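Dear U.,

For the methods section draft, I wanted the exact inputs and outputs in one place so we can describe them consistently. I've listed the two proteins in the order they'll appear in the manuscript figures. Please don't edit the token lines directly; just add comments below if something needs changing.

First protein:
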Amino acid sequence: MQDSNEELVAYNRKFKKAILDVMFSLSDTFYVHCVPNPLLHIGSRGLQDREEREGIVLVFGPYSTKNLNWDETGIHCEMQFNKWERVRIPFECIDRMFDKSGQVNMQWATLVSAESHREEQIVQKTESGATQEPARRKEKSRVIEVDFTRKKK
């Protein structure tokens, strides 16, 4: 069963990488919805508020990314969040990709690789073993919400 899951994860990564290649070649700006994953890294910012449960939509465009590259495991770049943050997006956490016009919209099942699962167990052990959790900022949410359901008339 484990081998079968790893084969599915490898196929899922390969497929998403191929779609990503097409999106970068055909679209100036597009969006990627990433679900929470232990291997998802968004600089020192991390996931905030509802993003920790629902994920984050990242904008890939001419002014939002720099030092962009990707390999067989995921996307690596710097993205603009008030300041440039180093970002690592594993393919297995990519849930959707869609373009600015709404003409292209792809959604996948997100699979968890053994590597993600191991990382999640390490994080859980670290959190349960810690005597005191760092205080989280209790300020007003700094997450920008965009409603894509509104249609132009």
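Second protein (the one for the lower panel):
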Amino acid sequence: MSDYTTNIGSFLAFFSPFFVGHGILRPVKNSFLALTLTIPLFLAGCAAPLLKGVDAEGAKAYLGSPEIQGTSTYQKYVTGPQSEAAKLIYVISRIGEAEGLLFQHEGAWHDPQEAYRGSMWMLRKNFEKGETARDFIRLHVWHSDNTGTPRLVKYPDGSLQIGYYILLNELDLLEATASRELGT
């Protein structure tokens, strides 16, 4: 993010009471609306950037090693039915096996095992026959249904990834690896 964007966001957030008090934002009579408009600008300037499935060098980010062929989770997938539900179970299992990561849900951070249990519950509760793994991830992982905020993954280096993109990376990795190995 450029310094210009950061400075504009901080400026607007700091001076928004002035703008409202001096009639600059007079058409916006509701102070809640004014705060709603200025807080995102402030956060954009001050918050750590949310990454979209790539690390600082531009490489795809995963929940663990991208060398998945020897893992028991991958072996369960390739020896099983390879359905859309099985793809989701694979991805959720990768969440449970993640080391050093934290997962945010509804503002609270959870370790991999808690995130695994919550994800399995979400899968059992919400997966519908005929739904693709990508559709499920888009509908149920992209953001919280209650708060509208994106679900986040925190890496040991402090970087924050939007969970949606990480799970799509995991799904892409699974499909590409299985396709190479099984010729599907």
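Candidate sentences for the figure legend, describing the second protein: Helices lie at 3-21, 31-46, 72-78, 84-97, 112-126, 133-140, 163-182. The first strand starts at residue 50 and ends at 51.

Thanks,
Y.
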